[in-house]
Amino acid sequence: MKIVILLGAPGSGKGTIAGRLVAADRALRHVSSGDLLRDAVKRQTPAGVEADGFMKRGELVPDGLIANMVADLIEGMAGDATLLLDGFPRTLAQAEMLDVTAARCGAALASVVLLDVEDAVLIDRIAGRRVCPKCGAGFHVTNIPPRQEGLCDVCGTELVTRKDDNLETVRNRLSVYQAQTVPLIDFYGARGLLRKVVGTGAIDGIVDRVRQVIA
Ligand code: ADP
Ligand code: ZN
Prior knowledge:
alpha/beta
């Protein structure tokens, strides 16, 4: 198994880009830590109950909690798949836990893609973000509008704003990113794995650039 990590601030487009990549390539599996956690919260599993408050405040959930969820998934995954990890790891401790899981499963870290986007753009993207509560598809009121206003293109469900997408929580998420996740850039850079990609401009262009660096 190959692992590709998508690294980038909240709103940098990790989920959108991953969605485009998997739609075009059957060998790719998209795992979003945020989606895993939101699903656990919805189902009120023990991990979900523990994660809920952290997520509402825009703080990171405990490292072991999310690392175990991702490890379970990796262990159950087919050997010939390429895993696109979106939102994990987000701390150095998580990166080290991922190394242990990868070694145990014979998976190789192939590359770490850094989606580079400036803060003003991040805030605008998050403010306009709408998601489908049923199938998880993501939209933006002006950048990626649904065909019918307020409704999911895929399943027709009414779109919602994520609970943690309000300005105060977003500011907190951006400062958490600076403090806890930015150190991963050097961590993977030192291993020669980092691929920096311009994360603004037309979506097709971003997808093409990412595809080139993970090929
Ligand atoms: P975004 O990238 O826009 O912040 P995500 O959906 O990736 O959105 O994450 C939403 C929330 O889920 C985070 O603010 C955090 O509380 C939690 N979360 C997601 N991934 C992790 C992780 N790897 N470690 C800790 N917390 C996480
Ligand atoms: Zn939907």
